[in-house]
Design goal:
Shape: elongated
Radius of gyration: 18 Å
Number of helices: 2
Order of helices and strands: EHEEHEEE
Structural class: alpha+beta
CATH topology of the domain at 16-96: Alpha-Beta Plaits
Distance between the termini: 52 Å
Strand content: 25-35%
CATH architecture of the domain at 16-96: 2-Layer Sandwich
Number of strands: 6
CATH superfamily of the domain at 16-96: Lrp/AsnC effector binding domain/regulation of amino acid metabolism (RAM) domain
């Protein structure tokens, strides 16, 4: 275990940070490996999590900022210029229903009408 962290339902607070999931593709050379790139990216304060993943991209990174502009500026000014990074795709988190195994309660009742056959 490396510690613990509270799971905050930001939607219930007045200040909600902007969260984004960013896909990263990289090109490796003989001197630089995935661990080297990960070490460099993990040092940035906005980076909340960083994973080497399988599939169409190499890394999945979660970042937080105070605004969409702050997140996009971080990606364009700090992440994209890393020489080994060849592509970034940013997905802004619109709503969170479950995090770290904890489901969040809905703020409103389901007001759809039930139809019986």
């Amino acid at each position: 275990m490396r510690g613990y962290r509270a799971v905050v339902d930001w939607h219930r607070l007045d200040e909600e940070p902007v969260r984004a999931e960013i896909e990263l593709n990289v090109t490796l050379d003989h001197e630089t490996g995935y661990d080297d790139i990960a070490e460099r990216l993990a040092r940035f304060d906005p980076v909340e999590s960083l994973h080497l993943v399988s599939g169409e991209y190499d890394f999945m990174m979660e970042v937080e900022g105070e605004s969409m502009r702050e997140v996009s500026t971080f990606v364009s000014d700090k992440v994209a210029p890393v020489p080994e990074i060849t592509q970034t795709v940013t997905h802004y988190v619109m709503a969170t229903y479950k995090e770290q195994g904890i489901e969040f309660e809905s703020d409103h009742d389901d007001d759809r009408l039930s139809v019986s056959p």
